[in-house]
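Contributing new complexes? Match this layout with 2-keto-D-gluconic acid.
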Amino acid sequence: MSRPRILIARRLFPEVEQRLARHFDVQTNPDDVAWNPQELARQLADKDGALTTGGQRIDAALLAACPRLKVVANMAVGYNNFDVDAMNAAGVQGTNTPDVLTETTADFGFALMMAAARRMTESEHFLRAGRWQRWSYDMFAGGEVHGSTLAILGMGRIGQGIARRGAHGFGMRVIYHNRSRLAPQAEAECKAQYVGMDELLAQADHLVLVLPYTSATHHIVGAAQLARMKPTATLTNIGRGGLVDEAALAAALQTGRLAAAGLDVFEGEPVVNPALLACTNVVLTPHIASATVPTRLAMANLAADNLIAFFDGRGPLTPVNQPATRA
Ligand code: 8YV
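Output block (do not edit by hand):
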C-alpha cells in the first residue's frame, strides 16, 4: 500500500520533518512561503493530510479542491483557521495542540501585562533614543501590578495559568468571566471569583483576553466595553486579534480612556493597524506567546503524533471535531 502524502505547510523543526518522513511521503516548504488560499489548495490537491500552523484557512472551497484530504493537524491550540462545519461535512478530521503550550503561553501573557502596566517598551524606546537626561518623579510611572485586580476573560487552561501566577505570585485579586463557571476546586486553585462581564470590565486593573475567537467573540471588547473600564486599567490580548475592535482600542489609548495595552495578536496579522502603531502606550509583539524552543518543539511533535495516530488507525489524539466519514 502506498504511504499517505502529507504537506507540512510551513518550515518546521528538521527533526519533526524527518520523523514525519519516516511515516509518510512528505512535502515540505523549505522557503517558508505563506501560501495564499489558491496556492495552498494547489499544494494540498493530492495530499491525504496536512500539518498547518494556524495561518492556513481550511474551508469549504479548499476542501472541495482537495478530495483526498482526511486530516489537518494544526500546530496551535486555537483553530479559528478551521471551518469546523465544512470539515465535518467533508469528513475531514482536525486536531490541535492543547496542554503542551499552557504554562509557556501563560508566562508570556503575564509578562506582556506587566510590560504594559510598567511601561517597559515605551521607556526602553525613550532610553535608546538618547532622551534620558535626568530623573523625574513621574518618569514612566505606571500602574501597580502586585495587589491589584487581575480580570481574565476566557478561563480555559491558559487563563487559569495566568490566574495562578497573579494570585499566588503577585497577591492579586483574580476575577474572571467565561462561558461557563469553573468547578469550585478549579476556582480555589487559582483563587478566582466568577463575575459578570460588566463587573469584570468595571473592576479590572488589568484585563487579559485569553478566549477563543469565534463569531460569538468577534470584537467582544469594543468602544462600549472600553468605556466601562477604569482609565488607569490595562488590556492585554493573547487570544486572537479579532477579539478586540482595534480602532476603538487605539482611540481609547490615544485619548487616555485606557492607560496601556499589551497585544500579541492582531486582526490583520502580520499587518498591524497603523492606529495601534501610532500609540506609544501599547506593547506590541508578533504573536509569540507560545514561542519557546521546547514548547514549539512539543507543539510540532504533538501535531505530528496526531497525524501518525490518525493514519495508524488509532484515531487522533487531540481532535477538535467529529467529522462524517470521508468516502
Ligand atoms: C501558535 C497560538 O504559535 O496555539 C495557538 O493558538 O496562537 C500560537 O501558540 C500560532 O497559532 C501558530 O501556530
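Reviewers usually confirm one structural detail per submission. For this one: The mean pLDDT is 97.
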